[in-house]
Amino acid sequence: METSKPKDNSCWVFDELPLCRYYSSSKSKLGIGQKLGSRLQVANAKYERFLQRHFPRFYVLYHTFTKGFRLLFQDVREVKVIKTRMLTKGIEFKDLPYRDMEKLRQFRRDMTKAIPLLLISIPPFANYLVFVLMYFFPRQLLIPHFWTPQQQTDFQKVNHAHRAQQYWAVLKGLESAGSHVKDGQLKRSLLDLCNKMQSGVHPNISDIQAIRNLFSGPPLGIKRMNANHMRHLCPLFFLTSYLPTPMIASRLHRHTLELLQLDRSLSRHGQHRLEDSELRLACYVRGLDSGGLDINQCREWLSQWLQLSSRLRESEASLLVHTMVLLSANYLTRRNE
């Protein structure tokens, strides 16, 4: 192939075909793409200003919807990085750093609710149906990514209220289980603890530790307790109780062990390194309505929780789910005395 330099020094020529033709073409396409993207951004900004000015309520839904998908896709990327690191470095879930473990735990729960939403929004114009769902059933059908800030506060209170409705049923179940305990000392410790709770007294960690041996086998082991008691425990993890008993036992066992592993990772991480929002979320996940507490109260409560959790074996994990009631039910009462 022969080459020659053009007289105007603008580009080289190969077989009389100028290289600048290809360079100019690709550069032109890139410029067109940038201009198109810029115009779309401008058009989108104008559309959002129009909605905000003329349809403020719809704008809130639209903005929440688009922001929610951005946050969801960001979570997908972060989870992919964590999963890749687990595979390449042979890291098990129980050995993950606290924030990575919490991200995976929350992502799994979110995807259980998000997948139906994503499937609904795929067909053309189906996003309008999603808007309707967001408006009428946001708490039941949408993940927190698609809640407004006010909804996040309100729904957290509503969800906790549903959970708190089971507290006294769980205490009654503990009291009933005491009749099946043969060890006299353990039986007295359990009944004394139940009486304290029903009297509005917040228990000491030592009161709970005194009964830990009851939770590694019958009648209070995670897979050894009666079916009705297990169904009362399901709402503590926001799990449905309308499943066969073996499935309920398996799900409770999995979530309880996951929480125990999360506690161990948090102990390694150090709760003093948590941001305020992370601290409140950690308390909420473990059964406390942290929205009505100041940050020092949340820190005190979580310290009590970790003090107990750090001494539990996996075979005693059932005590952990019951502690969600024992440490939370009367905590606000004690603080208001």
Automatic annotation (TrEMBL):
Do the record's keywords include Transmembrane? yes
- Which parts of the chain span the membrane according to its record? 114-137
Q: Where in the cell?
A: Mitochondrion inner membrane
List this protein's GO terms for biological process.
intracellular monoatomic cation homeostasis
Instruction: Mention any one GO cellular component term assigned to this protein in its UniProt record.
Output: mitochondrial inner membrane
What domain of life? Answer: Eukaryota
Q: Specify the Letm1 RBD domain's residue ranges.
A: 154-337
What keywords were assigned to this record?
Membrane, Mitochondrion, Mitochondrion inner membrane, Transmembrane, Transmembrane helix
A GO molecular-function descriptor: ribosome binding
Q: Which InterPro entries does its entry note?
A: LETM1-like_RBD (IPR033122), LETM1/MDM38-like (IPR044202)
Q: Name one Pfam family in it.
A: LETM1_RBD
This protein's membrane topology, according to the annotation, is: Single-pass membrane protein
* Protein name as catalogued: Letm1 RBD domain-containing protein
Q: What is the lineage of its organism?
A: Eukaryota, Metazoa, Chordata, Craniata, Vertebrata
What's the gene? LETMD1
